[in-house]
Design goal:
Helices cover 39% and strands 10% of the residues. By secondary structure, the chain is an alpha/beta fold. Strand 1 and strand 2 form a beta hairpin. Helix 3 packs across helix 5. It is rod-shaped, with a radius of gyration of 32 Å.
């Protein structure tokens, strides 16, 4: 009889809306509710939306025609969602985002409604949170990447992607992504940094610039590396060849950690600014440090000096300065 009743309503004139006090509206959960006693009504397949305070989801399987129901428009729905206490879990928040995105796709709205949408605590971030869409509005470039916690997760549906675009969210640019990620670097542990560096390798030759300089040159100056002693981070451009005994003896704080002191990582380190072998400056500094010390340290400096001169063809005139 209820289906017949609502079918009759759908044929009636606009003024023939049924008595709102009567519990005639079939909703998810098998409830018949009064239109006067619920907050707002939505028609959606996202039935979990009914778990939110003051919302009823009409059961579309029970009726033939919904065109006469006083269901909520987008602005009303968003206002209601902003006014509730959000204790719902991830699944409910995701359902709310999909519903809002789907309505935004078919309903025109002004900038104020869009900004209200951005305030809803339903947007997924790469760290698993659901929160309002904050500035800057970037979403992750790859499904598998670990971005800054401030980065939105990629849109899950076409409607959500359209909503992101309407709200000004853009796919994270390489520089923007890594600038944000480098801010988090000191708080990452060694395994997390290593995972990030594997992703950084893929971006190293991108054509973006920073202050007019190539991206790779900017990366070379960032304090990204650590040593096995766990001391302060240092830039790749300051990293020393870990295969050189002189470096291990005199400058251990600038040796890359064991995890990246491998042939796998050598091309990346070289591309990002690390030098192979020793330099004249390294030899000179080591000679000063070895002065008056154990003979084996002095011997290492002498051996390295001869090897350096032979390998580079250096005339050695500068050796007199270090004694």
């Amino acid at each position: 009889w209820l289906r017949r009743f609502w079918r009759a309503v759908s044929y009636a004139e606009a003024a023939a809306t049924p008595a709102v006090e009567w519990p005639l509206l079939p909703c998810v959960g098998g409830r018949l509710v009064s239109l006067a006693r619920v907050g707002i009504v939505v028609v959606t397949e996202e039935t979990r939306l009914a778990e939110l305070e003051g919302l009823e989801v009409a059961d579309a399987s029970k009726l033939d025609d919904w065109t006469r129901l006083p269901t909520a428009d987008l602005a009303t729905l968003v206002a209601r969602l902003l006014g509730i206490s959000w204790t719902a879990g991830v699944a409910v928040r995701d359902a709310a985002l999909r519903v809002v995105a789907a309505k935004r796709l078919v309903e025109a709205c002004g900038p104020s409604v869009d900004e209200d949408i951005a305030r809803l605590p339903v947007f997924p971030f790469v760290d698993g949170r659901r929160a309002p869409m904050t500035e800057p509005r970037f979403f992750a470039r790859r499904e598998d990447e670990s971005s800054s916690p401030r980065t939105l997760a990629r849109p899950s549906t076409r409607a959500v992607a359209a909503l992101y675009e309407a709200l000004g969210a853009r796919e994270s640019a390489v520089v923007a992504h890594w600038a944000s990620r480098f801010d988090e670097w000191p708080r990452l542990d060694a395994s997390e940094r290593l995972a990030e560096m594997r992703r950084l390798r893929r971006d190293l030759d991108c054509d973006e610039t920073v202050a007019g300089r190539p991206f790779v040159d900017w990366v070379a100056e960032q304090p990204l590396l650590w040593n096995d002693a766990g001391e302060d981070l240092f830039p790749i451009a300051e990293a020393l060849d870990p295969r050189e005994p002189l470096h291990a003896e005199f400058f251990p704080s600038r040796l890359v950690p064991a995890e990246v002191a491998t042939d796998e990582w050598l091309p990346f380190l070289l591309r990002a600014g690390m030098r192979l072998g020793v330099s004249r400056a390294d030899v000179a500094r080591a000679a000063r440090l070895a002065a008056g010390g154990p003979k084996d340290r002095a011997r290492l400096v002498v051996e390295t000096t001869f090897r350096y001169v032979a390998a580079t063809g250096d005339d050695g005139d500068w050796l007199a300065e270090i004694g």
